[in-house]
Design goal:
heterodimer; A: 302 residues; alpha/beta; Rossmann fold; Alpha-Beta Plaits; 2 domains; 4-stranded antiparallel beta sheet; 13 strands; elongated; B: mainly alpha; 76% helix
Chain lengths: 302, 255
């Protein structure tokens, strides 16, 4: 087991409206850990509590109860030097150029970057040629990339990215995904939120499905996808009695080949034995598992 | 200190682009230029009226700048969500508040020098010479607006821009009057109100310590104690307000 970078225990956040005496729950008893070098995807629909969780870890919100520990010892506010944060739909000072913006954020780390250093940082996010342009003239994808650059400015060990791919076109999404993977290859730990399943599936090593402020499922992508088998598809040749198999599941014929969708995994060995005894030839046995999307929908329905 | 300076410079640059600032400076220019119209109605007092009117106008426009721009500098960071990328960096609440405070003060100084330059230009034009004794007012304004800057930042930590604008104006005017109110209560024997006046006198900043306009316009001497009092009172009161502001801000959450 690697070093624990983020440790969250029984985290609760309740938003209170002092005048209306109303309360709403942001997160309700979250528990999870992120190890060094992992890309952890927090997956959930809008309003599930993803941003609340990320803001608490980033030190922008205070938990109502529970504990957040970063790097084994710090509370979020103390760990600011070691984290990089990209907020959802980031907004930056529109009057500054890309170069001035990075210089400004670098100074918040007590660093003064020269032109070459700024160029290097902007080259990583593909904005070297736009360094002299004002942020107000940047496209959404460029703002997201400069946001990524400001998150990296202090060379953080932990990157917190809130919906880094939302609202981007396919090229923009690819670019940001490449940036995330590039940072992972440098050994950075990355926590990011998304409601887009394919992104999480493509990038993350570990995922947490969050709904109504509660974590419904957490584990590595492999563990989650392995956990539930939807059906077993058996491909058979030379089996004349296809009607015989219908009692075990859905049967479909394509020429001489029969496909059986076996719903009950426990009957697998019995069915295989019967097919062979009756002269059938088994070409393949493929367990068809739930996709991440199906897991997600299952968690929602539960 | 580099962090405070970075935030201050950025606040200054951002404020310079505020359309309200340009409008107020242009309006200030027009008002200062119009001081000449008061000369015919003030027999034998023309020069003094121009000077008095001029220094008062500079003060009024500075108050308006603090009220309209100063009370929004914290709010804008939250409204535009730029605060998220600052408060997740290694910046303390005190550094952030100090940066905003000094950024606004930087703006106040620049505007003050511009308005005084315009004012001197008109006195030269209308009166044929520049009265350099008026520079004394500039010294007192520097410390008066340092304090008003701190008041605006303090109020912005827990109220909306509209409320903090109104309160900043009220505190400025009451702060100029508490001194007189205290004397009035004694003179008119209004003991029922004395607690209220005493409370206001001790709690609210006493802006009358910066009021040297009559002495300057009439070329009366200003004691060294007045200079020292303006300096020390402003620095001490502002420091306390900024420390309280950063404490209040540390309790803030960024939704």
């Amino acid at each position: 087991m690697g070093m624990i970078i983020v440790e969250i225990k029984s985290l609760v956040k309740i938003y209170k409206s002092p005048f209306l005496m109303k309360k709403s729950i942001g997160v309700n008893g979250l528990d999870f850990e992120i190890e060094k070098g992992e890309i952890f995807g927090l997956l959930g629909p809008n309003g599930a509590g993803k941003t609340t969780t990320l803001k608490i870890i980033g030190g922008l919100l205070k938990p109502t109860s529970g504990k957040v520990t970063l790097f084994g010892k710090y509370v979020p506010k103390e760990a600011r030097r070691r984290i990089g944060f990209l907020p959802e739909n980031p907004s930056f000072y529109r009057h500054l150029t890309g170069k001035e913006l990075l210089q400004f954020y670098a100074r918040l780390y007590g660093k003064n970057l020269n032109d070459n250093e700024i160029k290097e940082k902007l080259e990583v996010v593909g904005l070297k040629d736009s360094m002299g342009k004002r942020i107000s003239s940047y496209s959404k994808g460029m703002v997201q990339r400069i946001g990524f650059a400001q998150a990296l400015i202090g060379d953080p060990e932990l990157l917190i990215l809130d919906e880094p791919l939302s609202g981007l076109d396919p090229i923009g999404r690819r670019e940001i995904k490449d940036l995330i993977e590039g940072e992972k290859s440098k050994g950075k730990t990355i926590l990011f939120s998304s409601h887009i399943l394919s992104d999480v599936e493509a990038i993350c090593s570990k995922v947490g499905i969050i709904l109504n402020g509660k974590l419904k499922k957490v584990g590595s992508i492999r563990e989650i996808l392995k956990s539930d088998i939807r059906y077993i598809e058996i491909m058979i040749e030379r089996f004349p009695e296809s009607g015989y198999l219908e009692k075990y599941g859905e049967v479909r014929s394509e020429g001489k080949v029969i496909y059986l969708r076996l719903r009950e995994e426990t009957k697998r060995d019995k069915v295989i034995k019967e097919i062979i005894e009756r002269g059938g030839k088994i070409i393949s046995i493929v367990p068809v598992r739930l996709t991440l999307e199906e897991h997600f929908m299952k968690a929602i329905n539960e | 200190m580099n962090k405070v300076l970075a935030i201050a410079q950025n606040t200054f640059k951002e404020s310079l682009r505020d359309k309200i600032l340009l409008s107020l400076v242009i309006l200030g220019f027009i008002f200062l230029a119009s001081s000449k119209i008061f000369v015919p109605i003030s027999i034998g007092q023309g020069a003094k009226i121009i000077k008095d009117f001029g220094v008062s106008m500079v003060e009024i426009f500075e108050v308006l700048i603090v009220t309209f721009i100063g009370t929004r500098i914290l709010y804008q960071e939250i409204e535009r969500k730029t605060i998220y990328s600052i408060m997740t960096k290694p910046v303390t609440d005190l550094e952030f508040i100090s940066g905003k405070f000094f950024g606004l003060y930087y703006l106040i100084i620049v505007v003050q020098f511009i308005l005084f330059a315009i004012f001197f230009l008109f006195t030269r034009f209308y009166l044929g010479r520049v009265d350099w004794y008026l520079l004394n007012v500039l010294y007192f304004y520097l410390f008066e607006f340092l304090l008003l800057d701190a008041v605006a930042v303090f109020l912005s930590c827990f109220t909306s821009p509209f409320t903090s604008g109104i309160l900043t104006l009220l505190i400025f005017f009451i702060g100029h009057l508490t001194h007189y109110l205290k004397e009035l209560v004694v003179m008119m024997n209004l003991s029922n109100f004395s607690w209220l006046v005493n409370f206001l006198y001790f709690i609210l900043p006493n802006f009358s310590v910066f009021n040297v306009k009559p002495s300057v316009v009439y070329h009366l001497p200003i004691s060294i104690n007045s200079y020292l009092l303006a300096f020390s009172y402003s620095i001490l009161y502002s420091t306390i307000l900024i420390l309280i502001s950063s404490f209040l801000y540390s309790k803030k959450e960024y939704l």
